[in-house]
Structure formats: C-alpha cells, structure tokens
Amino acid sequence: MTKKTPAKIPAHIAIIMDGNGRWAKAHGLPRLEGHRAGTENLRQIIKGCAEIGVQHLTLYAFSTENWSRPKTEVDGLLTILETYLDKEVDELCAEGVRLHHIGRLEAMPESVRKKVEHSIEVTCSNTKLILHLAWNYGGRDEIVHAIQKMIRDGIPSKDVTEELVDRYLFTAGTPDPDLIIRTSGEMRVSNFLIWQGAYAEWYVTPTLWPDFTKEELFKAIEIYDQRDRRFGNISSSNNEN
Ligand code: FPP
Hints:
By secondary structure, the chain is α/β, with parallel strands linked by helices. It has helices at 20-26, 31-40, 42-52, 71-94, 110-122, 139-152, 162-168, 214-226, and strands at residues 12-16, 56-63, 97-102, 129-137, 179-182, 201-204.
C-alpha cells in the first residue's frame, strides 16, 4: 500500500468475481478466455489480501446455478480449476495461503474433487490467509444442507439458535464477511453468503473481474475503513441525547 494503511482491515473479504464474459466479449474473445483472464487475476488479489493482513478471502467462483450454463463453459471452468490447482498450489504455499472449500464438493466430478481435496491437504498448515473457494456453492442450498444435517443429528427445535446454525454451515468456524465486493456493477446478492453476509459492507464496482487490480482492492478497503458499521445500533458518535 503506497498511501497510509487503513486503520480497519476487514478480517474477511468475500468477492463475487463477475464480468468475465463481458470482458471476453469486449476483447473479441470466447467466454472461456474471460474466465482464464479472471483466473490469472487471482494471484494479485490473493497477494494483496495476504500483504495487508486480511485473514479470510472467499471467492465465489461457481454457483449451484452455474451448472445450467452451456456444457462447454461448465467443462471449461472445471478444467480451469484443475489447471489452477496444479499450477498454483506451490505459490499458495509460498504466500502462506491455506485452501478451504465451501459448497457441495461431493457433487463435483471425481478428478476435480480429488484435486481440491489434495490442495486442501497440501496447504493445511499455512496460516497467513485462508482462501475459501466457493465452488458448487449456493446460499440457499447451504441452509438446506444445514437443516438436513441438524435433523439427522436429532437436534431438538429449542436448541436451534443462530450460533448453532452457524456451526452447521459450510463456513463453520469462519468469521462473517466484513466486506463483500462485487465486480461488473451488478447490484445483486446472487445467492452468495446470504446468512453470513447479513451485516457485511458492500463495495460494488463497474470494473470487470479480470481488470480488478490490487490497487482497487486497497481502495475498497479504504472505503470500508471509512464506513460506520452499526449492526442495527446507532452510530457511536450519535449516542447522546
Ligand atoms: C462470472 O462472470 C464468473 C464466473 C461464473 C466464474 C468465475 C470464475 C473464475 C474467475 C475463474 C475460476 C476460479 C478459480 C479459483 C480457478 P460471468 O461469466 O457471469 O460474466 P458475465 O456476466 O460478464 O457474462
């Protein structure tokens, strides 16, 4: 960071990496090239988060709804994920990044699932930053999954509290996101962290994901730093009559 470091660094940033398709179109390229460019962009953003002291980064890469895209795009994205893991796991370790997955891993093709599991294992002792990869993830699906598991575990209804629900989500043990970034200008939640994001601050930018730089990430953090987070309370500077 060239300018002064913000006083308040979000412990958890979550990103909806949107706009790969439009980026490809603008460059006269097939959609998968947009996803490849978006994947290349991960390096600087992960590095930026580790550099500034963010502890958790969640990336929304493939939603439960994305299976309905053309098969060539779905297959292409799965291949991009496999290649990314093959190529980048050493770099993740060098940066002190631990990989974690959220979503329905069991419903992913076996070869991809195994690579994800292997990468999680290889990076498990890294402590600088936890990278939560949301792949085959949907917020509603996560809640359904949690309820099913609670019922299977025989949890009586009187014991169902917000804290208990937290423990049944894919994100159990992870603090809620402080800042959610969405690229490409869309003003939608798109089924992302719908429980955990209840009090997240949002930064929406027209920048398409492959063009989203570390500098813009730092700008988003500076804007977050200036926000007054009230969590339903009144402002701390406004509590006198
Ligand atoms: C949304 O853009 C992006 C996706 C559905 C895929 C995001 C995936 C990556 C950045 C690469 C894979 C990530 C890893 C970790 C290997 P869009 O296709 O909806 O764009 P559009 O709205 O402009 O069409």
